[in-house]
Amino acid sequence: MILGSLLTVLVILLFRQGELDGLEGRLYDARAQWCQFFRKAPTDRLVHVDIDDAARETLGRWPWHRNILADVVDELGRCGAKVIAFDIILSEPEEARIEPGGTVTDYDALLAAAANREGHVLIPASMVFEAPAVDPPAVTSAIAQLSENLELSYDQFNQKLRAAGKAGLSENEYVHALREAMDMRIRRESTSGTAFEPLRAKLLPQWSRMPFNENAPDARIFHQQFYLIQAERAYEKFSLPMPGPISVLHAYSMIAPLPIYSAAARYGGLVDHIPEKDGEVRRIPLVAEFQGRLIPQMALVLACAELDADPSSLEITNDHIIIPTPDGLNVTIPVSSRKTLQGQVGMFMDIPWFGSGNYRAMYPGPLGQHLNIGWLYELSNWRKDLRLNNALIDDAIKDVLRIENDWGPPDRYEKLKLGADDFASRTVYLQQILTKDLSSMVESIRATPIDQRDQYTHVPESFDAVNVAVEQNKQLFDQINDRFKQLHQMLDGRVVLIGDTGSSSTDLVNTPLAPQVPGVVAHGTIVNAILTRHLWEEAPEYVTVLHTLAAGLLATLAVACLRHVQATFAVFFLLLGYLVLNGLVLFDHGNYLVGTAGPVTAVVLVSVAIMVVTVGVESAEKARIRHHFS
């Protein structure tokens, strides 16, 4: 009994020191894979729009021009998507294109305009949670000195140091110090509305007298830091105030989208996954702190939007996050603390993974609620072709109407002001215009030599163009309607997640169910958990300690009080019973996560150790007796 108790205490100590974390992770994964008998049916309010291999074959190598994404957003809006979320970081501008006629195509402006039109778009940001390296004292001192004069060149600064009897900085150290000094001054002396040139004139008065040269090191660093800070400040609209003293992951820096996207987006959120020591993503921080404010996780924001809840109304404590809903059926999300590079930190949600490991089969239906983004872009192109044909019809029919007819002159048609997409109304008017009498007149003109047609020279060609365009648009109109009906049925009122699921994607995570799963699928899994209220709650540490203690003591009693064979069966059924209790009853049915490694280790270690000691003692006793009677 004493040995079993001591070994049980040893297992508890190992558990509390984190020595069983590796085994705990493997048992956690096995439980997630095999214990899914009582899970709720997944939501039908979520659709993944995939940038997959098929889309790449159609649209070309990723990344695409952002006008393609703008067209996709417009189509999603037409199809009734409730919220559109990008799992794409739009932190770098795309170079505008100058067309042959001299017009400029600003791809970022096109996508931002589409997001603004749709009105319910989420653009995410990424965070850096690793602490930057500590600067040596010489660099720290250099940052303070350069912050007083940002225009000191590398040579000038080192001359100043040597004159003071100090060693100079390397070029890399100087550039780092200058960047930090500029960051400090820009943050201190600007706001979100500060313009670039006035601030440059204030902080870099000598440089400001010259034309801006973005290739000059000083100017380039100032330009980069200014717009990085402006992007961060533009993203503050999506942050939340700290609710009080909570344990939360701290972000040292942010990779924010361009300010034009923050201005156009309705929602924002954190996009990062936090792998554990073994590289798997089992939990995710639902909020993170940056510069004294909280940034919510994008899946949490999406769930709020679907539930018609304002993310700013979230109730956040160390134990849970509550989403207040208009119908009063609030969603309570359990959160717990985890060991991170920053120590024990809270606000982590266990991701309720489900399915067989094939992410495309997680949701019901033939498509599994996954849609190739190419379908939407193809629909957009069909609409463009329809508009072009409609414009051709309008120009050509006005030419045809210059001949004498019963319908009216060209200006009557112009006054109709038909919409660019409105082929149905055009069809009605064309049926009135293109009569047999008009056709006969056109054929009469066609039979007339060209040099004798007077002002009707191109009327036959215009008439033919109208008929060809009408036939093309009839086919396009039917294609558009059929595709729109399919997509509207799938997307209307749903949350849409746009992300990279291609085989060449760099946004892949290892999960308890399968390795190399697209990161966007993880976000979708979190949204599903919140919408279905299928949420896992992590048991306090003391619960696992009590389970371990009970398991170890029961194993001790079984081995100490029963014969070897009986003890072996007892330990086997004890272990099996605990796995059923932990996996099926507590976890699968109750959504309650109790540590498994501690109790399992206690049962195995205690039973094996006591049996070995018992067998050894019995063998020694038998040997003593044989020796005594020999």
How does this structure look, described?
The chain is an alpha/beta fold and 630 residues long. Helices cover 53% and strands 13% of the residues. It has 22 helices and 23 strands. A hairpin with a 3-residue loop joins strand 13 (315-316) and strand 14 (320-323). The longest helix has 33 residues, at 459-491. The chain starts with a helix and ends with a helix.
Question: What is the element layout, followed by pairings?
Answer:
Elements lengths: L1 H15 L4 H14 L11 E6 L1 H7 L6 H13 L4 E4 L10 E2 L5 E2 L1 H12 L2 E8 L8 H12 L5 H10 L7 H18 L7 H8 L1 H4 L8 H19 L4 E2 L7 E2 L2 E3 L3 H6 L2 E4 L12 E3 L1 E4 L2 E4 L1 H9 L8 E2 L3 E4 L7 E4 L1 E5 L2 E8 L19 E3 H28 L9 H6 L7 H11 L2 H12 L11 H33 L3 E6 L7 E2 L7 E2 H14 L4 E2 L2 H21 L2 H26 L2 E2 L3 H33 L1
Parallel strand pairs: 1-18, 1-19, 2-5, 2-19, 5-9, 7-11, 22-23
Antiparallel strand pairs: 3-4, 5-8, 6-12, 10-17, 11-12, 13-14, 14-15, 16-17, 20-21
